Amino acid sequence: MIRSLLVVTALVLPMAGQAQAPRLSEIFEANMRPGWKTENGTYIAALHLRLAQDWITYWRHPGESGIVPKLDISGSRNLSAARILWPEPKLYIKAGFASIGYSDEIVLPIELTPVDAGQPVELDAILSVGVCADICIPVDLALNVMAQGSGTPDAMITSAMTRRPQAAHAAGLQGMECNVTPDKRGLRLSASLQIPPQGREEFVLIEMTGSTMPARVLPTERDGDTLTGHTLFRTKSGGAIDRSAVRISVVSEHGTSVHQGCAVSD
């Protein structure tokens, strides 16, 4: 059996000149979906969000602007890790900035790894997210799930788990080149991808997996079949870029594709 409870709290920060921020109940509805125990001993549950028209919330990386989601599980019991299995996001242009996220309705699966697989797991966590339209509202979601027994597979959670970003090869990636150049603020990494247009609007997100270096995502450029993205990694003199750790996501209004590393294998 997996029992769930969700409590919503929020801090509303209206933009300058905004007379009154909308009520939270007018923007979104949030519920926890209980799930099941997997064959490897973890538990699957999910956060189910329904957003009002024109509102979005953010992927694990918000793009050029937005609020980075953060999950605090420090209040949980018998839980060693909780991992959000992010479904494929889309690109939204808000106030001239590229934002990566979700609109309408989204199910976010969460994998719970127990310390002791023979004992119940209690997720007592705070998920801090942003919901944005003309204004952005930081929201703290209090997530509580008590997981024990086998539970029951949930078709909505299973469907969300299958909607992951596709490999860039499947999106038509033929070749790529990474260039690292020094900058007075650190190192600038540019990735040029030979890939056909993915949509009317495109955005390249460049990250380094496992890195804690602060980074600033820069605008994307398209020239024919070449799509180029840039990220500035703020690092002290002597810092280095591990090209094998570079993760490149190409996001459009139609979805997301991902490639790992600065080379394309045959």
List keywords for this structure.
single chain; mainly beta; Immunoglobulin-like; 7-stranded antiparallel β-sheet; 4-stranded antiparallel β-sheet
Report what the structure shows.
By secondary structure, the chain is mainly beta. The longest helix has 8 residues, at 155-162. A hairpin with a 2-residue loop joins strand 13 and strand 14. It folds into two domains: 2-162, Thiol:disulfide interchange protein DsbD, N-terminal domain (Immunoglobulin-like, Sandwich); 166-260, Immunoglobulin-like, CATH 2.60.40. The protein contains two helices and 19 strands. It starts with a strand and ends in a 6-residue tail after the last strand. Strands 1, 4, 5, 7, 8, 10 and 11 form a seven-stranded antiparallel beta sheet that branches. A four-stranded antiparallel beta sheet has the order 2-3-9-6. It is 5% helix and 56% strand. Residues 12-19 have low confidence and may be disordered. The radius of gyration is 20 Å and the shape is globular.
Per-chain topology:
Elements: E1 2-10, H1 24-27, E2 28-37, E3 43-51, E4 56-63, E5 70-72, E6 79-84, E7 90-94, E8 97-103, E9 105-114, E10 121-132, E11 136-147, H2 155-162, E12 166-167, E13 175-183, E14 186-194, E15 202-208, E16 215-223, E17 226-233, E18 246-252, E19 255-260
Helix and strand sequence: EHEEEEEEEEEEHEEEEEEEE
- Percentage of residues in helical conformation: under 10%
Largest sheet, in brief, is: 7 strands, antiparallel
CATH topology of the largest domain: Immunoglobulin-like
Could you say how many structural domains there are in total? 2
Mean pLDDT, nearest integer? 90
Kindly report how far apart the N and C termini lie: 47 Å
Return the structural class.
mainly beta
Tell me what the CATH architecture of the largest domain is: Sandwich
- Write down how many β-strands occur, each being a DSSP E stretch of 2 or more residues: 19
How large, in whole angstroms, is the Cα Rg?
Answer: 20 Å
Q: What general outline do the C-alpha atoms trace?
A: globular
Q: In percent terms, what proportion of residues is strand? A: over 45%
Count of DSSP H/I helices: 2
